[in-house]
């Protein structure tokens, strides 16, 4: 077994996303990410010459893209199927980590940005917008009028993100379950696909 | 003019809540709160012998109670009026601070707690639950069946909190506006008070 550089760039990005979704951006350091990923510190500076802000920006994009890929697949079955998969994803993250991890996109959005953190916030804005667009397009395809579809899509993303935070505080999936029940009823009343 | 202790306990608690809603819990220190409130550092240790965790716990309770008091008053006009006031409160905080401040209850909920931070999380859980209860009671009074009222109340709190985070990332009130439009339509369809 050769231990030669098993720590790819992607592993560091995924490690940073995991650390940010657990403890937030301010409490995440390049040093800790390298330690967490069992990578030499030098390799992180090699891969991310822009330092913590570059790594965090890529981590947020990575998380945004991962969720978007899942959403795109699950939405093929319609808006209700996509909604269920979206909320099931968050429920799994919460229960798998004893409510210690949430969403890295949310985490970076609620901390006053450092002077050079505008790229991180921009990545978060794009991640949210990407999920909203996927949901809105499916809702429209399922027969919801355009303006209402956009509002519903934002409501779904906002409610899921808020419920993840509430679930972490309450150490219970109940907020997600409540939101899931109401949103599902709402989608079934608004769409014609279920 | 005597400079004798103009910095009451409450001012320090409010200052801590403001710092937490801007930058999160990990990046908030007692030293910074004292500086922010222009209070001598010694007075913070005098008032809060339990240190940062005690101050943060009281800050979260203070924010939770402030919002609950406003909600209780505004809900007297019915669920739709309460919803509008709740979302208007968050919109005002965002626009007054150039999207740099959000909700301190949300902020402490999305950071992995320090070893002694269970009291802070507990305070956050209670704040969320308090807002949910006030909304659910009004919805029931307005004719919404009990189970649905509970789900709707959680949906409102979760969506508002999530939309605040999305608005900070997107530097726009659009997420709150979208959520407001959809939730208001939903409440009008569910209740008989409007």
Notes on the structure:
The structure is a homodimer of 194-residue chains. Chain A has 9 helices and no strands. By secondary structure, the first copy, chain A, is mainly α. Chain A has a domain at 57-190: Orthogonal Bundle (Tetracycline Repressor, domain 2), CATH 1.10.357.10. The radius of gyration of chain A is 18 Å and the shape is elongated. At the A-B interface, helix 6, helix 7, helix 8 and helix 9 of A face helix 6, helix 7, helix 8 and helix 9 of B.
Give the name of the CATH architecture of the domain at 57-190 in chain A: Orthogonal Bundle
Q: Which residues of chain A sit in consecutive blocks of at least 5 with pLDDT less than 50?
A: none
The main pleated sheet of chain A reads as: none
Report the span from N to C terminus of chain A: 52 Å
Give the largest interface. Answer: A-B, 51 and 51 residues
How large a portion of the residues of chain A is in β-strands, by DSSP E? Answer: under 5%
């Amino acid at each position: 077994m050769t231990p030669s550089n098993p720590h790819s760039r992607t592993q560091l990005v995924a490690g940073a996303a995991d650390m940010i979704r657990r403890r937030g951006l301010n409490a995440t350091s390049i040093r800790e990410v390298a330690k967490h990923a069992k990578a030499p510190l030098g390799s992180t500076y090699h891969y991310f010459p822009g330092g913590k802000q570059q790594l965090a920006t890529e981590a947020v994009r990575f998380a945004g893209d991962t969720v978007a890929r899942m959403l795109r697949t699950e939405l093929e079955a319609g808006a209700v199927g996509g909604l269920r998969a979206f909320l099931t994803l968050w429920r799994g993250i919460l229960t798998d980590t004893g409510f210690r991890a949430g969403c890295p996109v949310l985490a970076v959005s609620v901390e006053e940005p450092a002077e050079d953190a505008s790229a991180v916030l921009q990545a978060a804005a794009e991640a949210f917008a990407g999920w909203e667009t996927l949901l809105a397009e499916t809702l429209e395809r399922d027969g919801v009028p355009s303006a209402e579809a956009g509002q519903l899509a934002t409501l779904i993303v906002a409610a899921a993100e808020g419920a993840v935070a509430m679930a972490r505080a309450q150490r219970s999936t109940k907020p997600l379950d409540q939101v899931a029940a109401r949103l599902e009823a709402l989608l079934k009343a608004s769409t014609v696909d279920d």
